[in-house]
Amino acid sequence: xxxxxxxxxxxxxxxxxxxxxxxxxxxxxxxxxxxxxxxxxxxxxxxxxxxxxxxxxxxxxxxxxxxxxxxxxxxxxxxxxxxxxxxxxxxxxxxxxxxxxxxxxxxxxxxxxxxxxxxxxxxxxxxxxxxxxxxxxxxxxxxxxxxxxxxxxxxxxxxxxxxxxxxxxxxxxxxxxxxxxxxxxxxxxxxxxxxxxxxxxxxxxxxxxxxxxxxxxxxxxxxxxxxxxxxxxxxxxxxxxxxxxxxxxxxxxxxxxxxxxxxxxxxxxxxxxxxxxxxxxxxxxxxxxxxxxxxxxxxxxxxxxxxxxxxxxxxxxxxxxxxxxxxxxxxxxxxxxxxxxxxxxxxxxxxxxxxxxxxxxxxxxxxxxxxxxxxxxxxxxxxxxxxxxxxxxxxxxxxxxxxxxxxxxxxxxxxxxxxxxxxxxxxxxxxxxxxxxxxxxxxxxxxxxxxxxxxxxxxxxxxxxxxxxxxxxxxxxxxxxxxxxxxxxxxxxxxxxxxxxxxxxxxxxxxxxxxxxxxxxxxxxxxxxxxxxxxxxxxxxxxxxxxxxxxxxxxxxxxxxxxxxxxxxxxxxxxxxxxxxxxxxxxxxxxxxxxxx
Amino acid sequence: xxxxxxxxxxxxxxxxxxxxxxxxxxxxxxxxxxxxxxxxxxxxxxxxxxxxxxxxxxxxxxxxxxxxxxxxxxxxxxxxxxxxxxxxxxxxxxxxxxxxxxxxxxxxxxxxxxxxxxxxxxxxxxxxxxxxxxxxxxxxxxxxxxxxxxxxxxxxxxxxxxxxxxxxxxxxxxxxxxxxxxxxxxxxxxxxxxxxxxxxxxxxxxxxxxxxxxxxxxxxxxxxxxxxxxxxxxxxxxxxxxxxxxxxxxxxxxxxxxxxxxxxxxxxxxxxxxxxxxxxxxxxxxxxxxxxxxxxxxxxxxxxxxxxxxxxxxxxxxxxxxxxxxxxxxxxxxxxxxxxxxxxxxxxxxxxxxxxxxxxxxxxxxxxxxxxxxxxxxxxxxxxxxxxxxxxxxxxxxxxxxxxxxxxxxxxxxxxxxxxxxxxxxxxxxxxxxxxxxxxxxxxxxxxxxxxxxxxxxxxxxxxxxxxxxxxxxxxxxxxxxxxxxxxxxxxxxxxxxxxxxxxxxxxxxxxxxxxxxxxxxxxxxxxxxxxxxxxxxxxxxxxxxxxxxxxxxxxxxxxxxxxxxxxxxxxxxxxxxxxxxxxxxxxxxxxxxxxx
Lengths: 597, 597
Fold this sequence. Notes:
2 copies of one chain form a homodimer. Chain A has helices at 5-15, 32-50, 54-59, 73-84, 103-137, 140-151, 283-319, 342-374, 378-414, 425-432, 442-453, 456-477, 483-508, 512-516, 519-546, 551-571, 575-583; strands spanning 63-65, 68-70, 155-160, 176-179, 185-195, 204-212, 223-229, 231-233, 239-242, 245-250, 261-266, 273-276. Chain A is globular and about 80 Å long. The two termini of chain A are 43 Å apart. By secondary structure, chain A is an alpha+beta fold. In chain A, strands 3, 4, 5, 6, 7, 10, 11 and 12 form an 8-stranded mixed β-sheet that branches. In chain A, 61% of the residues are buried. Helix content of chain A is 56%, strand content 11%. The longest helix of chain A is centred in the middle third of the chain and has 37 residues, at 283-319. Chains A and B meet through α8, α9, α10, α11 and α14 of A and α8, α9, α10, α11 and α14 of B.
């Protein structure tokens, strides 16, 4: 099921106040009607072109036939509809051929597409990400020849980082780029886990490939970024010959089967042309631009899948009659909808708190992108940027964990039916399991947040986050119903800061391995803290709006308050054992001998 | 992969001291060599007949063709091998045609089979369970005609409880049993989720069917239990005509595909004969005998799947080279096996602690069955029985949660590879997701443990458990390396008891809905407490054995101590937020309006 529009409107307009963005010159041509129109179009396409084929795309996954990929035709039709409405171009600058829609609105649309059919959505997500890199770092000619057709949906993009022996460790990339007389490079190597690596959904595929120019430094400092088109493009934009990129295989995944995932071979015939983006040896820095965006995109997908499962299980729980309330001992009394049972409500509230909290988190990050775009001074832009850097691994990882757990509970609400392929919840669960793996595994993001994002810029990212959390706690503290939660958030923020100080101090005194040993758990705790903050802020908005609300609107706001209560009572307290463990600098994993396992 | 034999031997012989059972008259004909021989046979069959076909059974799931079920022929061959070695008969009394092997050993074999191929194993598990009910409550003729051939593996069994509208709520079973002049009954109705409901793996299928005799009480007090053979059996044991049981459909599941799961229609032609087991209206009590055994069996399966994933991911982590230790900034240094990375070790230790702890738990329950069988007085038998009743929902549910989480981490250790169908971990994860659903959903067991098992017999089950836990804490307290964990266990036991008192007091004062609202979380906490106890006991045994151990044996015991440390430092502290929530009698789910969701 799709994310309810009411939910999207609440975060976009009421919590994040996207309407006020139109007061800024960048969005002065837009107003709320425009944003609503974009959302309307996304819902229409998601409902008509994406959702009806999600089960089919899972059942008939892409196949490797005679060196090509075959897939169901509805994939192409859905993406054509997406491009008719220019969704790939939506958040890009008008100067680049984009629609200059705020990222807050664009990511809300992405969440809707992901809730409908994440496998189809991925092609658009990858294309936007790749185009963004070329627009940021490519030459004017590269922008014209590659990025513009990508925004128009004529060409699709990929990101080619991993190799069979190197997934998390990009330092070990072996693909070679040999400089040629004409300024191009000759690419040789294999790439693994390439989503959208081969298909005929678009006129061309633009691979962004990490490779080494011989003679460069070892490790990540010797990686360069290349544009490798599936079909070569002549300077006038017309197609040249096919480039030497071969499909070596198709990976068969547990889920997310609507997106083809490939093994690609570059330069098997010695004739694969690649075009350097920016300067040599700076490829990883460029690629991080794409990856950071893609990471928030992964969080958005996890949230979409989680919300879809929540809505399916909620509908089921309202309709499925079974059992009687506790205390009703009369077997002749009629069975009640299972939503009456406390444990089913707990499972629904947990899903609501995780998935709507996840949506609040990822759209907040999207709003930070918009804040950076409209900032009139470097200080404001810097603050938003540093906070975004800190929150990117959180926005990627926390939904990947807890929206997967939400899908687990969605299955549980449906019972045996949920375990069958007759209902979508098992597919959503399978799809969501990927999110902790692609675009950086969970453990990598733990190291990133504790080992890099926290200390960098003199801790400016955390300082900004703590300031914003305490400000929200102060605002909410004046509302009686929220005051206890406001206190909890303030206490938890201080506590988190104290533990962080211990860890950074330990890392700084030469014991980095010990300090970072439980970085994944640190990231989990930071995620819970951040989402608690987003819930308190959402509840503050809901409490205010409730005063003038009635009917289903009042129910909606009451639901926000209930989910906030759930999060502060059931979820935030789970961080304390994690923080205690982190503070103790536990050495269980560090002192472990491998032979003991 | 199979559970390592060393692991099974440790729990069976060193912790649970199954060898001493041979001092009892019941097992006087056996000795450790006999038990070893049984285990040897299980490992051989599991390695040769089960494991090699687990992936195939998943890929080519049973199909509904012309009213019959088609499945891969290796299913039949594996079960034939199982029966040649009399595994179904293993734990049954010699007087009933069994081998009188202790349940501790028999369940260890089951865990091995489940780790190899849970889909094949389920047929044997169901057959043993059904035979057990007939032996316990059936007539002599029923034992002769049905149970004996089941022990011999000639007939397979099923349990037919659920109907499409009634899974968790057996009070709403509608299938009718109409008494006939000859003492038999005519059965009419449909049953849902029937594993092993139709196949040609055995000469016959013996369905145990819950149905209502007209005129009986409403609800569960009006349910009777019937033997409904697929083919009727004449008094001399020869086959009569086919009974009127029709296959109405096959369910398509996310996992556990090696076991066919069916919809059955009884009496479509008005000619389905059923034979009453025991007395009318007492069927649910009889079926609970099967269900309680099946519930521990489900825990065993969850553990087998969890351990299999752990071993696959451990082997992968030892071999996969990627990344460098923290602090090694030289990209020219060779990559290390990923087992060197702290986060990978954490994921491996978590899997080890959950899955080996799960094995310790379920085999402890099996040992309680043996203790009951050899008890020479009613007091000892009663104590073991009451403890087993309390631990049955724990042994079913805790592994279903945490061995599934272990499988989730096994996928994570393998990264992208783990998400493909080229490695078994994604299948194990899909298989394991069923265990929280069948044989009573998680929430049902929460209500069972807090609403029934705790208060019954004047709280004798808990008293026995607390006494045993405190005794272990006392024993381990004298070992310096374990003393801190012994104190933690004692404190946690007292704390758990205090919270339990609050909840039972609340339930007793007419606020049962509030007291039971978070019963599932109570069960989770009880599971963590119980497994912490089993870890401390295992560590106590390991610490003692370590003094004389060397080489791989010393490593094995050190691994037990490390996993115990992990459990007490990372896992047991997670119970405190749950207990605080329970103690606060939180009403978030109870006061929730359905319209707010």
